[in-house]
TrEMBL record:
Protein source organism: Hucho hucho
Domain named VWFA: residues: 282-495
UniProt key word Repeat: yes
Single GO term (MF): calcium-dependent phospholipid binding
Record's protein name: Copine 7
Length: 527
């Protein structure tokens, strides 16, 4: 095993109270394998097995490399990395004798090794900003065959910080052709150059031999920065050089020319790209004022205002709101219901201006509201979801990434309009909106897990699936003894991915970086 790379930024996703998950890319090579063949050398293939609950299962396998005891495989294994787990891996190497299933009785087992993912050599990568599609061809390559023309293929190696070389891509073989046009291929910038445009790439051109004794045609060095010079109809070319010929032949020019005829850069944007581009996170809070909470004047009520300790509603509100306020100048609030059994009314009783200044304004509005309302029922959540979804739908007319919505719902029990709520969430999944639901109190919230979608795709009563997973549900009691930061980290963990997922689906790029006062103030106070 010779390389593991972080393929995604931490913080992507993940359901329930979980840690961040990274994806890693793993490449393998072998040296001095056993030779099981009589006339030729072994034709090796590596199978990667992962252990799950004590059972080994196949994750993936490499290509077969013909007649080679020191194979460097082009196949890239991709798997999730969990820092908190000892992830056991097993690599099994076979000498393949046919085109049927690998690892059968017809194939020779050459050996295997077990290790943990943490034991594999890793190169730290900071960031992931997309992938590139490359179009290579060549002209006038040297002819290495006696009765036909060369069968060329191209290999690209990344030169690591420690001087080692890592295979990035191996093209297909073009038979009997000195002017090959290889199929375009896609590779992440992490794999290609570790997101370093000036990192050297070693490129080798070979004449394929079915016995594995490929003839060397030539080599050249490149960087991703050089590749990006393509454009305006111009192409990037390199002389394919054979060092031995250069020393021996007086008038040697090259062994052909390799041409990059096209390059397509596919940028993958991050949450921070959108935030630094001026995307505002519009934060709305909905608090459950149903009768099941108890009379706020009674100390047993979930809405009881204790002068010495905030209630669970306030704890959850402050924990999440203090994070969101850094990305939103104002916080909106709607609370169901009031004396007219309204399922969404402004907490400050001003429907024309229902916004509050930062999280402290929200807290004050909540405390001032309690003596003026009568708790009632039922617990209907769909009206507030539909209202905010309609509000966020208006952002679609702007056609830029300027505003995204988060709806925080604090409730003490299972909603009574579950079917309508599922329908509302499916509709809302098409809008720039994420929904966080925190269950307050000791009720049985089992049914609420359905809305989260972590155990399967949430569907409307008619069977229509959500476009995106936009709901995160957690019971507050799971964080009673934890710090407020733990609750905020859990419920907000999925939001960055949901923001990126929405704008990616709409093919909306971040706006150019802009001055963002709330971000500057949160990092470096201004005197």
């Amino acid at each position: 095993m010779n390389d593991v790379q972080d393929a995604t930024s931490p913080g992507a996703a993940l359901g329930g109270p979980v840690a961040c998950v990274s994806k890693v890319e793993l490449r393998v090579a072998c040296k001095a394998l056993l030779d099981r063949d009589t006339l030729n050398k072994s034709d090796p293939c590596v199978i990667l097995m992962v252990q799950n609950q004590g059972q080994w299962t196949e994750l993936d396998r490499t290509e077969v490399i013909k007649s080679n005891l020191h194979p460097v495989f082009a196949k890239v294994f991709t798997l999730d990395y969990y820092f908190e787990e000892a992830q056991k891996l097993r690599f099994e190497v076979y000498d393949i004798h046919g085109t049927h299933s690998i690892g059968t009785r017809d194939d020779d087992f050459l050996g295997g090794v077990e290790c943990t993912l943490g034991q594999v050599h890793a190169e730290e990568i900071s960031g992931n900003n997309g992938y590139v599609e490359l179009f290579f061809c060549a002209k006038k390559l040297d002819d290495k065959d006696l009765f036909s023309k060369s069968d060329p293929f191209l290999e690209i190696y990344r030169i690591n910080d420690d001087g080692t070389e890592q295979l990035v891509h191996r093209t297909e073989v073009i038979k009997n052709n000195l002017n090959p046009v290889w199929e375009p291929f896609k590779v992440s910038l992490i794999s290609l150059c570790s997101c370093d445009e000036d990192r050297k790439l070693k490129c080798l051109v070979w004449d394929y031999d079915s016995r594995g004794k490929h003839d060397f045609i030539g080599e050249f060095y490149a960087t991703f920065r050089e590749m990006q010079k393509i454009g305006g109809g111009s192409k990037v070319t390199w002389d394919c050089m054979n060092p031995k010929y250069k020393l021996k032949k007086k008038n040697y020019k090259n062994s052909g020319v390799v041409i990059l005829s096209d390059l397509k850069l596919h940028r993958v944007y991050s949450f921070l790209d959108y935030i630094m581009g001026g995307c505002q996170i519009h934060f709305t809070v909905a608090i459950d004022f149903t009768a099941s909470n108890g009379d706020p004047r009674n100390s047993c009520s979930l809405h009881y205002i204790n002068p010495y300790q905030p209630n669970e509603y306030l704890k959850a509100l402050i924990a999440v709101g203090e994070i969101c306020q850094d990305y939103d100048r104002l916080s909106d609030l709607f609370f169901p219901p009031n004396k007219q059994v309204s399922h969404d009314f402004a907490i400050n009783f001003n429907p024309e201006d229902d916004e509050c200044e930062e999280i402290q304004g929200v807290v004050e509005a909540y405390q001032n509201c309690l003596p003026k309302i009568q708790l009632y029922g039922p617990t209907n959540v769909s009206p507030i979801i539909s209202r905010i979804a309609k509000l966020s739908a208006g952002e679609e007319t702007i056609k830029d990434a300027s505003r995204y919505h988060i709806l925080l719902i604090l409730t003490d029990g299972v909603v009574t309009d579950m079917a309508d709520t599922r329908e509302a969430i499916v509709r809302a999944s098409y809008q720039p909106l994420s929904i966080i639901i925190v269950g307050v109190g000791n009720a049985d919230f089992t049914d609420m897990q359905i809305l989260d979608g972590d155990d399967g795709v949430l569907r409307s009563p008619k069977g229509e699936p959500v476009l995106r997973d936009i709901v995160q549900f957690v019971p507050f009691r799971d964080f009673k003894t934890a710090s407020p930061a733990a609750l905020a980290k859990c419920v907000l963990a999925e939001v960055p991915n949901q923001v990126v997922e929405y704008y990616s689906h709409k093919a909306i790029c971040p706006m150019p970086p802009s001055y963002c006062p709330s971000l500057v103030l949160s990092e470096e106070p201004v005197n």
